[in-house]
Every structure is written in C-alpha cells, then in structure tokens.
Write a structure and sequence with these properties.
Blueprint lengths: L2 E10 L2 E11 L5 E5 L6 H8 L7 E6 L2 E2 L5 H9 L2 E3 L11 H11 L5 H14 L15 H13 L5 E5 L7 H16 L3 E5 L3 H7 L2 E6 L2 E6 L1 H4 L10 H9 L3
Helix pairs in contact: 3-4, 3-5, 4-5, 5-6
This protein binds adenosine-5'-triphosphate and magnesium ion.
C-alpha cells in the first residue's frame, strides 16, 4: 500500500487527539500496525484514514489518490472503497450472520439481493463460518462474532482494510483465531492497517509499526528495529511503553 499522512491534526474541544502527524508508507508494506498507550490517537488516525472523521489540518493520500475531505460525495466513495472494523463488536444484534453481511452490501454498495447473498456466503465460507450463517450474534462466540465482522468488512473487496483492535475483547484462544485470519488475509494480498495491543502479533506480522503517543508518532520502523530488546526499560517513551506492556 502507498499511504501518505501529512501533518494531520485533530482536536476535540480541549483535547489534541493528533498533533500534526506525518507517516509515509511505501508499496512493499502490506500490514501497518499502530501501537501505543490508550488515548494516544490510534483510533482517531484510523478513522481519518477510513474517511469517517475529518482532520482539522493536514491531508492524506492513499495509493496515489488524495482523500478529498471537503466533498461529501468523494468521502462516501472513499469509505465504500475500504473496509472497517470498529473497536467494539459491531454486528447488528437482531440480524443473522448472513444478514449482517448482505445488508451493507445492498444498502451501502447497491448490490441486488441475490448478488449480496452470493457474496456474503462466499465470504462466510472463506473464513469457515458457513455453518453459522443463520445464527444471531448472541448465538456466536466473541471470536466467531469478530470473524463475521471481518467477513463483512472483506465482502465488498476493499482496497484497504482498517481493523481497530480486532482482538481487544477476546480470550487468548479466540484472539488466536482472529489473528490467524488476519495472517491469512495478508497472505492473499490484502493491505491492512490495524491497531493492536498484541505486541507479539505486531512484531510477527507487521511490515511497519508506528508508535503513537499523546497524538504524536514517537517512533516508526520495522518490527525488528522497534521491538529491539535493548529498548525495553530504556528511558524513551517507546521503551517505557514496551516495558510496561511486556512486564507480565
Ligand atoms: N469523538 C470524540 N470526542 C471527544 N474526544 C475524543 C473523541 N474521539 C477521541 N477523543 C479523544 O482523543 C484522544 C485520542 O483518542 P483515540 O480513541 O484515538 O485513542 P486510542 O489510541 O485509540 O486509545 P485506545 O487504545 O484506548 O483505544 C483521547 O484523549 C480521546 O478521549
Ligand atoms: Mg482506540
């Protein structure tokens, strides 16, 4: 993916969620991972990249195309061309797994009923969820729900897939299921930008890791550089963060 974030600022009232951040991501990167303490700005930059939030200053371009935040129509088009998984579970509780996928395909992407069902079934099958297609979210485990939510995000064939803490509400086994699915997506060439608190996963699968703290990119690099053991415990923001999150 080619992503260029240029001097992006986002302010909510008194809070500077993002303070002029810039990131340049080159073609060879297929997974960019954002890590950092709570409140650091990870979800905010993800929402701006996905066109769900408008920056106060700065701009972004994705695969050579500037995102036009001024035009509602362009923004909608941009949103439709990417997939998004929000931080908390986001399936419609009163709809089956299948309906959860067909509904946005019909209403957001304008597909006919038959085509939407066909796409949704393929997407469920791809992730081994076909036997759950008629189940409601409450009949599915947290991991299964999250896989259905990813299947939904993937169904329209998004350019970029944004995953905001896809495993934050899951136990270790379900976390493993969802992380396996993300690796599988990467292996099929899907470009992904995700936030996570799973440092082992970030280290293993990310091509590039950005550390966001207090609305700033305080470090960015390849996982091997960023998760260098020599950093742990060192008196830098990243060093302190890593020694905190890897202590137990
Ligand atoms: N819609 C909003 N209105 C007001 N403040 C917001 C809004 N969204 C985010 N913020 C604030 O902006 C800052 C950055 O929030 P953000 O959600 O991006 O952090 P985060 O890094 O994703 O944290 P976490 O790891 O807890 O998910 C926080 O101080 C948060 O309270
Ligand atoms: Mg967040």
């Amino acid at each position: 993916m080619r992503v260029n974030i240029s001097n992006v600022t986002k302010v909510y009232g008194e809070i500077r969620a993002l303070s002029g951040i810039s990131i340049e991501i080159a073609e060879d990167v297929s997974i960019l991972t954002l890590i950092g303490p709570s409140g650091g700005g990870k979800s905010t930059i993800l929402r701006i990249l996905g066109g769900l939030e408008v920056p106060d200053e700065g701009g972004i371009s994705i695969n050579g195309r500037d995102v036009c935040f001024e035009s509602k129509e362009d923004l909608l088009k941009h949103r439709r061309s990417n997939g998004f998984l929000f931080q908390s579970f986001n399936l419609f509780p009163h709809k089956s797994a299948l309906e959860n996928i067909t509904l946005p395909l019909q209403t957001v992407h304008g597909l006919g009923r038959a085509e939407a069902i066909d796409k949704a079934e393929k997407s469920l099958k791809r992730f081994g969820l076909e036997s759950h297609s008629e189940k409601f979210p409450f009949e599915l485990s947290g991991g299964q729900q999250q896989r259905v939510a990813i299947a939904r995000a993937i169904a329209p064939g998004p350019g970029l897939l944004f995953l905001d803490e896809p495993t934050s509400a899951l136990d270790p086994e379900m976390t493993g299921e969802v992380l396996d699915l993300i690796v599988e997506l990467k292996n099929t060439g899907q470009d992904i930008i995700l936030t996570t608190h799973e440092m082992g996963f970030a280290r293993q699968v990310a091509d590039r890791v950005a550390f966001l703290d207090r609305g700033e990119i305080s470090s960015i690099g390849n996982p091997d550089e960023l998760f260098d053991e020599k950093l742990y415990g060192i008196d830098t923001r990243l060093g302190k963060f890593l020694s905190r999150v890897t202590r137990y």
